[in-house]
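Comment thread on ticket #2218

A.B. wrote:
> Attaching the input chain for the structure job we discussed in standup.
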Amino acid sequence: MPEPPRSVRRLEVITGAGGRRRWPTDEKARILEEAMAPGAGVSEVARRHGMSPQHLFTWRRQARREAADPPLAFTPVVVAPDPPQPAACPQAVIEIAMQGAIIRVPPAVDG
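C.D. wrote:
> Ran it. Output below, let me know if you need it in another format.
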């Protein structure tokens, strides 16, 4: 015996290009700024921009992580002329210079 036909209550047709949507950096920044505003509802902001709340929550988490990690930067190196050397000692001496202080260790010291 054949099954009676069933009525379709809701049918959703998705048109357009499939796959992942690419968000321009400036638009992504604007959406993040809107979602991170005090009192903003992430789900509401996501709906307004046609994206899932999970996607926006992921963006927020990434943005917070990036803000917590300072960017790597190079420290400039300055080559300064050698300071004047003290008069030569008749014995070998170990000199440790730190922050303007010089520590001289005579050869008779054993560690």
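A.B. wrote:
> Thanks. Noting for the ticket: DSSP finds three helices and two strands in the chain.
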